[in-house]
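Hi all, posting the design record for the shared folder.

TITLE: backbone redesign
STEP: 1 of 1
STRUCTURE INPUT:
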């Protein structure tokens, strides 16, 4: 563990003293400075007194739940990393925490000790890189201003400053690589939520998002699309069913052709709901557009906007093929699964 991580300050917030004691015993051997609070209000009071690097908060707490607490932390201390502890029944609240509190990660209870220690370590390291990225960006800005004032005759000084800038840019590129990993981790959070809501391991829908993403990526590559478009289509495949988080349990996984008219109407809302969830994250806006239209049909009979032909985005057309192909095989489109030869 780096010196920076070892000297970091963690704030642990939970209304159950037993949970706080367990977390304190877990993290104390790793050299962190630990602060404890038994409510969201007490947590805010601690933050007002002491600089904190990372907050771990339970979701279910009286008076102020984890989502509301972490939203205030984001607004008042935006550079403090935020992790949410949540149970399997807290899907809606977890989505709110992701959207409003912009949490770094969420961890399901009961947690795995090695996993939560690793998540905290990685989150603090990513926070350090983001801080370094901001410092280097400020350094580059200051050096650019200084370069404007240099006399044309100071060629040697310009050469020295240019070398320093090149070195700084190399550090920035490294930091941006870590931020890209953080973005992909957010995708995994959303994808895991959708998987959990539709039954998790053992459900016919288990792995559906990953299979659709892989099929769609393969089709996009065969069509010769640009790398950026292929990545957007793959992400949309992973997240295309995120809008089903709010559907009743008895509709998930039931073949579409067996649903009543009212139930079909509910299911047909999920592309728009999925778009609304994803639009909250700036880098998901292109993905959200593909998710909205992945049930449109070329003849205009699809939903939600009854687009037809080339009015449907290419990525959505690719997703529709991949989604229906997998749905036919797992039995969520028609009653009897159809296996590929």
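Okay, here is what came back for every position:
SEQUENCE:
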């Amino acid at each position: 563990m780096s010196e920076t991580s070892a000297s970091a300050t963690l704030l642990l917030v939970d209304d159950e003293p037993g949970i706080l004691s367990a977390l304190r015993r877990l993290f104390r051997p790793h050299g962190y400075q630990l602060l404890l609070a038994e409510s969201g209000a007490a947590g805010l009071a601690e933050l007002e007194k002491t600089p904190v690097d990372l907050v771990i908060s339970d979701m279910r707490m009286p008076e102020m739940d984890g989502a509301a607490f972490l939203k205030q932390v984001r607004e008042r201390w935006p550079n403090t990393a935020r992790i949410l502890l949540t149970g399997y029944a807290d899907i809606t609240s977890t989505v709110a925490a992701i959207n409003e509190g912009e949490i770094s990660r969420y961890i399901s209870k009961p947690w795995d000790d090695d996993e939560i220690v690793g998540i905290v370590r990685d989150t603090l390291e990513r926070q350090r890189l983001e801080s370094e990225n901001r410092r280097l960006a400020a350094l580059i800005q200051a050096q650019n201003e200084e370069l404007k004032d240099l006399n044309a005759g100071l060629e040697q000084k310009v050469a020295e400053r240019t070398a320093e800038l090149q070195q700084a840019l190399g550090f920035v590129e490294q930091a941006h690589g870590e931020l890209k990993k953080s973005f992909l981790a957010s995708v995994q959070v959303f994808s895991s939520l959708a998987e959990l809501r539709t039954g998790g391991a053992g459900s016919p829908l288990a792995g559906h998002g990953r299979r659709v993403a892989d099929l769609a990526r393969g089709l996009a590559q065969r069509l010769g699309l640009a790398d950026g478009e292929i990545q957007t289509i793959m992400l949309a495949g992973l997240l295309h069913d995120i809008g089903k988080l709010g559907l009743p349990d008895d509709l998930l996984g039931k073949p579409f052709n067996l649903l009543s008219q009212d139930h079909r109407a509910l299911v047909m809302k999920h592309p728009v709901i999925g778009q609304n969830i994803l639009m909250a994250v700036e880098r998901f806006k292109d993905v959200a557009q593909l998710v909205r239209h992945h049930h449109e049909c070329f003849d205009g009979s699809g939903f939600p906007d009854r687009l037809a032909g080339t009015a449907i985005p290419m990525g959505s057309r690719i997703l529709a093929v991949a989604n229906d192909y997998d749905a036919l095989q797992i039995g969520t489109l028609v009653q009897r699964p159809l296996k590929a030869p």
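COMMENT: Strands lie at 9-13, 33-37, 54-58, 81-86, 105-108.
Let me know if anyone wants the other runs.
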